[in-house]
Backbone:
């Protein structure tokens, strides 16, 4: 067998039977364990189950910010599940989706029947410079971080070159931010629930030129969770289960400078193509896309790498309004990282929970008209780990 | 803190003299050095000394510095395209941020990278400055 081939016949089909999330924001009175439990208990209640076989936790910075490693055992014990298998999964900002994929593999492979996945991050327990340094640890410590590079700076380096090569201006990126904030305004769990104008975007202060305040997603606390089980059992738990059609993860060089083309997210292309192949669909079949808009430039690069736009044309989808709720490819339908907020290791799980809300018809004022297939994509670091999932509300296998 | 000395000492050849590698199979010049060529996946080859000349591929200024770099802010970081091929991440020095442009010729110099407090290490390594016209 060739590497990378999928032996679908040996795996069980898996569905999401419960979802839960905390509001994203500054939770001064709730610690890491509380936030994880809040989301987990909501998801278990939603699934109508009082037990799971295993718990997978997506988290990046518990050790750096809260002085807390060994998160699996901590949360399992705190949630009253002492004894079950539990482990933390870390892949920088892609920790959430990476944990989800571990849960999926546990169920698909037959090792577990009912699994909980929680993405949780507590970012307000330390000062800004420490959190900035913690986030920068996702980059190459010996060859990037030692030069004082931050995550914003890495994205700024990519964005400036992208604008230079394709002759773009700041206006071209505005609608990514405007769209995210418009959608966040109707999400009760979003950190920012106010729409912004193009003018506000253009007048925002510089963070790391050319990135200004409204290009960048905010740091936050938050937790989001799902319960997974084999699709053949899903109806016993839930009448609105969401089935996983495709799941793939890929890596690229850790450092931006080690890429043949720093303007192309190879791991996004690789993981999306694998997920499309598993789902037997192409980008034209995706009804909406929860992408990783940590910065506006990442939204553009993600759209290009996943086949929704030609290289250098990602911002056209924003300028032309195709990313709006009533557009051809709605993105960030509940606010995205930009407005919902970016509690790094939890973000991938928020994306999946939000996609499930859309597919269950529970997205409130932001509900799309009868979506069948949604895609989520969680990016770690400057693009070194990228995890793509395709979900549907059609349970027929 | 003393344990961290080895972590930086082992990178002296890279930090002070831009010593990378040349792949014996595909002849690509590699920096930073690795055990495996990133382009052809063969074992990476003998040392290669980079000239330190290159041009600015992209740049930005950092105002909100991470821990350990607060006193340097604001400072300019860049992706520099080395003459021999690879991109490298480094700070720019001896130039105002507003005067930096993509394509600007730059050359490697040795500067202080960071100080780790009163009892910690002082790290030195490469930064890049505008190429001197008469050089």
Residues:
């Amino acid at each position: 067998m060739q590497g990378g081939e999928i032996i679908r016949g040996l795996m069980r089909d898996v569905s999401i039977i419960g979802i839960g999330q905390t509001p994203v924001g500054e939770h001064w009175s709730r610690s890491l364990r509380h936030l994880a439990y809040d989301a987990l208990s909501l998801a278990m209640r939603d699934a109508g189950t009082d037990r799971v076989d295993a718990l997978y936790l997506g988290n990046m910075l518990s050790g750096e910010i809260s002085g807390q490693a060994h998160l699996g055992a901590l949360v399992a014990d705190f949630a009253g599940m002492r004894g079950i298998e539990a482990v933390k999964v870390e892949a920088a900002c892609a920790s959430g989706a990476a944990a989800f994929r571990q849960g999926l593999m546990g169920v698909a492979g037959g090792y577990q029947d009912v699994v909980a996945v929680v993405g949780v991050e507590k970012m307000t327990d330390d000062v800004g410079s420490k959190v900035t340094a913690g986030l920068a640890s996702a980059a190459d410590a010996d060859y990037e971080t030692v030069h004082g590079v931050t995550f914003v700076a890495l994205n700024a380096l990519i964005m400036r070159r992208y604008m230079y090569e394709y002759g773009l201006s700041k206006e071209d990126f505005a609608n990514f931010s405007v769209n995210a904030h418009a959608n966040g305004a109707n999400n009760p769990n979003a950190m920012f629930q106010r729409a912004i104008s193009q003018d506000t975007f253009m007048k925002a202060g510089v963070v790391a030129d050319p990135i200004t305040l409204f290009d960048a997603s905010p740091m936050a606390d938050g937790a989001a969770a799902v319960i997974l089980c084999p699709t053949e059992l899903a109806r016993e738990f839930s009448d609105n289960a969401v089935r996983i059609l495709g799941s793939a993860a890929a890596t690229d060089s850790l450092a931006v400078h080690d890429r043949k083309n720093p303007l192309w997210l190879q791991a996004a292309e690789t993981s999306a193509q694998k997920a499309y192949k598993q789902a037997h669909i192409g980008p034209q079949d995706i009804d909406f896309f929860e992408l990783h808009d940590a910065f506006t430039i990442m939204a553009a690069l993600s759209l290009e790498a996943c086949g929704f736009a030609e290289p250098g044309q990602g911002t056209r989808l924003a300028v032309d309004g195709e990313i709006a709720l009533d557009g051809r490819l709605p993105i960030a339908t509940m606010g995205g990282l930009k407005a919902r907020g970016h509690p790094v290791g939890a973000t991938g799980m928020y994306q999946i929970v939000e996609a499930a809300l859309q597919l269950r018809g529970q997205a409130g004022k932001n509900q799309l008209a009868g979506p069948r297939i949604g895609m989520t994509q969680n990016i770690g670091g400057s693009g070194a780990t990228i995890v793509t999932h395709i979900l549907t509300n059609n349970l027929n296998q | 803190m003393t344990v961290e000395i080895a972590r930086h000492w082992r990178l002296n050849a890279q930090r002070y003299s831009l010593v990378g590698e040349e792949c014996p199979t595909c002849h690509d010049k590699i920096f930073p050095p690795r055990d495996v060529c990133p382009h052809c996946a063969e074992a990476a080859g003998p040392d290669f000394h980079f000239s330190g000349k290159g041009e600015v591929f992209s740049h930005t200024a950092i105002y909100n510095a991470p821990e350990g770099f607060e006193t340097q802010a604001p400072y300019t970081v860049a992706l520099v395209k080395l003459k021999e091929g690879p991109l490298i991440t480094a700070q720019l020095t001896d130039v105002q941020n507003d005067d930096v442009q993509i394509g600007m010729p730059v050359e490697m110099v040795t500067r202080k990278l960071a100080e780790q407090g009163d009892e910690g290490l002082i790290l030195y390594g490469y930064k890049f400055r505008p190429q001197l016209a008469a050089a």
Summary: Helices of chain B lie at 4-9, 12-17. Chain B touches chain A at residues 11, 14, 32, 38-39, 57-70, 72, 75, 77-79, 86-91, 97, 102, 113-114, 123, 125 (CB under 8 Å). The two ends of chain B are 40 Å apart (CA to CA). The beta strands of chain B are 19-22, 29-30, 47-49, 53-62, 75-82, 87-92, 105-115, 122-130.
